[in-house]
Amino acid sequence: MYSLSRSKAFGSVARCVPTKPLIRVPAPIRNSASVVGQPVVEAGQEESPHQQVTLIDGRELGFAMYGASTGPALFHFHGNPSSRLEAADFDKLGRQLGARIIGVDRPGMGLSTFYPNRKLTNWPMDVTELAQYLGVDSFGVLGVSGGGPYALACARYIPPEQLRAVGVVAGWGPWDRETIQHLGFATWLRVHLYSRFPKLTEMSLTGRLNRLEKEQSTGSKSSIPHPMTVLAADSEKLSTDGEGANDGKLSHKIAKLQDSIRHGTNGNAEEIRQMRTPWGFKPEEVNHEGVRLWYGTEDQVTPIGIGRSLAKRLPGARLIEYEGLNHFEMGDKSKEIMEAMLEDVVQPQGITSVMMV
Predict the structure, then answer these.
(1) Taking CA 117 as the corner, what is the angle to CA 116 and CA 123, rounded to the nearest 5 degrees?
(2) In the list 147, 296, 318, 350, which could disulfide-bond 143, CB 3.0-4.6 Å?
(3) Do residues 143 and 167 make contact, with C-beta atoms less than 8 angstroms apart?
């Protein structure tokens, strides 16, 4: 149940405010003036794909448009550490398939305003406000690794007539027994420590950026492993450019990390805190049937057990297991994943299945 209230920041704009615990995010009113788009370019410059939208609470939400200029819309939720730049990996594929790929920065990363002590359940409202600004009536969401829970939050709260497709690629699960039992002790310990001590996140990310920049300048790859595997993985996992370990891919990796921490590391630290914070809903409560899940059987960051657990808990979920693939090799399946997502955006369906390929 919702009541209408007036926002001081936006004068007479009406906003839906829940008078009871949130059950669904209300569908946006397309012609409402509750958000204002602001391209991140100076006067006289060419139009940039990187933009900001001012949300109704005054925060800025950064996003970038890739792929085709028209066609089905798919919102891409990046991993951690990363930013909307991660969606650029799908630009060429989006053009080929005639789809709009919209990369969105989460709070405190890229162009988005930091939001301390935020909740996972805040995210669907941000997405619907962005869709409203873009004039997108129906769309799909794809969450990669650390972005997986955000895709499932949208599946829980955005009406299925608006949210036509939901996909999770090697996504993190809720911090409960069903997820924790599949984690190695080292991963569990790292998440536990980094979520309690944000300084560790800062040291980890700045140290990683320094190593990558040194690698770029010297041409020699660092042999020092990243101390936070969960943080290292997401920004370099799902790529479609096929460049391998060349300068272009390294430059893109550096750009994503730089953009992720352009305003500091608080946003990334908040992400880690979110990893071991209750979601605010259970997977069993997701209203969207037919969520697609893709996991590799050799993934040590988000083990296949997490995917299998989610497949059992999400109504009508469709799990595809890629035999022999790890967290960093899922990009090999990008075209297959994108085609499946766009198929659902155009014609949603819900079929419970598990497939090994």
Answers:
(1) 90
(2) 147
(3) yes
Give yes or no for a contact between 295 and 322, defined as CB atoms under 8 angstroms apart: yes
Q: Is the predicted pLDDT of residue 100 greater than 70, yes or no? A: yes
Burial of 349 (0-12, 13-18, 19+ CB in 10 A): exposed
H-helix or E-strand spanning residue 40:
none
pLDDT tens for each residue of 223-252? 444 444 444 444 444 444 433 345 678 888
Calpha distance 109→114 (Å, rounded): 7
Task: Report the alpha-carbon distance of residue 193 to residue 201 in Å, rounded.
Answer: 10
319 SS3 class: strand
293-348 tens-digit pLDDT: 999 999 999 999 999 999 999 999 999 999 999 998 998 999 999 999 999 998 76
End-to-end CA distance of the chain: 44
Pairwise CA distance, residues 325 & 235, whole Å? 17
Instruction: Enumerate helices (H) and strands (E) in the chain, giving the number of each.
Output: 11, 12
DSSP 331: G
Name the DSSP class of 89.
Answer: G
Nearest to 155 by CA among 292, 19, 355: 292
